[in-house]
Specification:
By secondary structure, the chain is of the alpha+beta class. It has 4 helices and 4 strands, in the order H-H-E-E-E-H-H-E. A 4-stranded mixed beta sheet has the order 3-2-1-4. A hairpin with a 6-residue loop joins strand 2 and strand 3. The radius of gyration is 22 Å and the shape is elongated.
């Protein structure tokens, strides 16, 4: 027989689990770290992109309003003016996409705008039909393609998370 001294004073006994509501916070933390990491990596890739080599007259002709910021006209040194990040939440009851637009008016990214779209049914309704599940996300990608300027399609990071 095991004496009560073998357990800490936290009420831990064999067969009894402590309840701790950290999972939602851990999930949100992972998502936040993922978004910030993707933004950091994509900015690093943008510094070597061909867009930075455009002359000022070429830039004036190529400016899409989505490439501008409502907060400033000049980015922080060594940064692009705006950057987009896509986050897909492919859930069991529905799938959602967040298209985040960040500006670099300062030395760190600031969230400037977000596009949100949700589609139902969720991925679990497709069972073994992988093609149908993949096709169900097409509407979300269309929203992303419309929201992100064409010049940034190749360097916009996307993360897909499944909650179920």
């Amino acid at each position: 027989m095991i004496s009560g001294e073998a357990y800490s004073g936290l009420g831990q006994y064999p067969g009894k689990y402590r309840s701790f509501a950290a999972r939602p916070w851990i999930r949100m933390g992972v998502i936040a770290v993922t978004i910030l990491g993707l933004v950091y990596l994509s900015v690093s890739m943008l510094n070597t992109s061909s867009f930075s080599g455009l002359s000022s007259s070429s830039r004036a002709e190529a400016i899409d309003p989505r490439l501008q910021s409502v907060h400033c006209d000049v980015p922080h040194q060594g940064r692009p003016l705006v950057q987009y990040v896509l986050m897909v939440d492919a859930g069991s009851t529905g799938s959602r996409i967040h298209v985040y637009k960040f500006n670099y008016c300062k030395d760190h990214p600031e969230l400037e705008d977000e596009i949100f779209k949700q589609l139902k049914p969720g991925l679990s309704s497709f069972g073994d039909n992988a093609k149908g599940a993949a096709d169900s996300l097409d509407g979300l990608m269309e929203a992303a393609m419309k929201g992100v300027p064409e010049q940034l399609h190749g360097c916009t990071p996307i993360a897909v998370k499944a909650t179920a």
